[in-house]
Each structure stands twice: as structure tokens, then as C-alpha cells.
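User: What would this chain look like folded?
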Amino acid sequence: MQATSDVPSTAGEWSTVASDRCSTSRGRDVRIPPRSRARRRFLRSCLPPLGAGVCAISVDGAPRAIADPAVRSFGSPDAVQGVAVDPLGGGLAVDIHLDEAPADGALGIGRRRALDARHRALDLDAAVKLARFLVGEGNEGLVLAGTTGEAATLSIDEKLSLFEAVTNAVSVPIIAGTTGTNTRHDIGLTVEAEKLGVAAILAVCPYYSRPSQAGINAHMRAIADTTELPVVLYDIPIRTGRKIDSELLVSLATDVTNIVALKDAAKDPGTTAAVIHEAPDDFEVYSGDDPMTLPLMAVGGVGAIGVATHWCAPEHVAMFDAWERGDAAEAYRINRRQLESYAWETGDAAPNPLPAKSMMRVLGHAVGDARLPMGPAPEALDEQAREVYDRLVASRG
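Assistant: Here's the prediction, encoded as C-alpha cells.
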């Protein structure tokens, strides 16, 4: 299993759904080559946006260290800046964003953070630095321009610049967030992203317009049809205003050969269990909501694309490892140590990615502030981050 982080980056948000690609039973070269295990899990880190969404992930089948690709954490498909984890199939991933460098030259982190509240330019150097850090922490893939990476505040040029810079700077697979609310626009961005060498596409359910299921179906098939890359569906109704129906998820997974995974942030493990049961055996489901990661693993999830994984990567690795060897009690114990981080990572006063960016600052990354309309972070957020992290470290013994 793998953990992936959806992280806000100092240079952009990036997250990865898979670190390698391998042939699936459906005949498309869209998977990560299996290493020591058959299943892979991806976790996206939700680090503060770096200015250009970036996320690192690790996949299943390698040693058991933080850098071990066997068990990694993923951040959300949205944005992973830093070391957040997001379940996405068996690896550790982080989404990173780069904030434009402040006047004093400091770099900002966070997906939307890539640009400060005044919409400063992306700091690609900072994004690359963060991406390399995340890879060094054990992420086997990176997701760029995700939720935590403030993808909604990045222009097309900024996203493409981020994809290019990070893809050329690291050796792990890059998953690009190329979709939004305009199918024609999304197709164009997907085509350009593929030219830059990204490894996969993260396709979120169209938001704001709240299309019908027929519209969502046509949209996703159009995106997948325009690329040979693997496509990871992203279902997060709390942000999009529309749930992708289970029947549609199964249909897309069955009929479209390069739709290979789901980032599930629907908060309903029971319904997702039915999707896992009905979908092809090689269709992977990753947790896109940190508190739901362990419950989803219990019904067949293979990893996570997360937020808290930006600073809880070691815990996610150990939790997945314990689960994989059948030690459920140990997995539960490790998950309990992360509950405070899960609760703190987002809220009404400080929505994600504000807390993730704050945590990245505490850990020494100049990630800056999130772009508007996310708004400024509460004054005490950095102090809270330090306290949350200190207690987590103390719990490691």
C-alpha cells in the first residue's frame, strides 16, 4: 500500500498518483510497475502551496523506510505542498505550490500560495526545491496543481510552467491537475501537459456549474479520450457541489481503459466499498480525505492522497505497513496518533491549504501566504502548527 500527500508548494502544488507505469489487465500502459507488492497506494501531501502545485508520492513495492516506495502517503489531488499525504494507491505523494517570492526574497509555499494574495509570480526555483525535498522524504510521485496546491488560482501558463519545471527537476512520476469547469479548456491543458512529460492526469468533477451525471460522464470521457496518460478521477462533492454517482464511477472504470483510479473524498466508505466491488480488479481507490483513509483501507482502498501527510509521512508509512502485514491493531494505534493533525488540517477559520502551508513554514519552508480569495491565515496558526507537530513527534517515542 502507499501513502500520498497533496501539498501546497512554495513553487506550486504537485501530487502523484503513481510513481511508475505498468500494463494493466485492460491492455493500457497506465500503471506503476509492481515492485515487491501487487497493489500500490499513493498519498498526496497537502503542503502549503508553493506557487505551482506540486505533490510527491511513493508507490508500493519497495523498502519500508520513509523513502521507501513500498508504503507512502499521498496528499489530495488538489494540491500538495510540502509533506502531506493523500491516499492514491500505494505511495507517498505531495502536492506543492510556490508562492511568488515576497519583497524580502522569501519564498511562499502553498498551491495557491505559489502566488501571494497580490497574485505575485510563481517562484519556480522554490517549487523545484520543495519538490526535491518531498522526493527526498520518500515520495514516489508528485501531484501538481491540485486542491492543496491552489490550482484554481493558477493561470494556464503558470500551470504549464510548473509542470515543466518540476518534471525536469525530479525523477519521480508527476501527476498533473489539468481539469476544472470548462471541458474545452481542460482538454487543451491536458494535451499540453502530456507534451511536457507528466505521468498522469488528475481529473476533478467539474465544480460550480453542477452538471448532470450525463454531463460529468461526457466530460470525463472527453478528457480521457484526448490523452494516452492514466487518468485519476477525483470525487470531492463538498468542494464541487456534485457527487459522481457510483454507477458512473463503475462505468468509467470499466469502459475507459486509461481511467485507472479514484481519489475518493466523498466521506462515505460504505458506498465506496460497493464501487470497489463492482469496478475492475485493477481499478484503484485512494483516500482523498485523511480521516477516511483507514476506513477506506478496510473496504479495499489501496492508499491515500492526503494533507496531514505533509508532516505525518512516517506515520502513514508505518500505518500502511502494519495494515499490509495484517496487524490491524497497530494500524489503529498509529492512526490515533494522527487524529489531531487530521482535525487541525482544515476548518472554517483556516481552510486547507492554510494549515498545511503554516506547517511547512514551521518546518523551515518559505511557502508564503495563499492567494485570494483564500484569504490570510489566522495570526496564531503557525504557533498552533508548532504545537501540533511537537506533540506528534513526542508520540513517536
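The chain has one domain: 2-395. If you want, I can go into more detail on any region.
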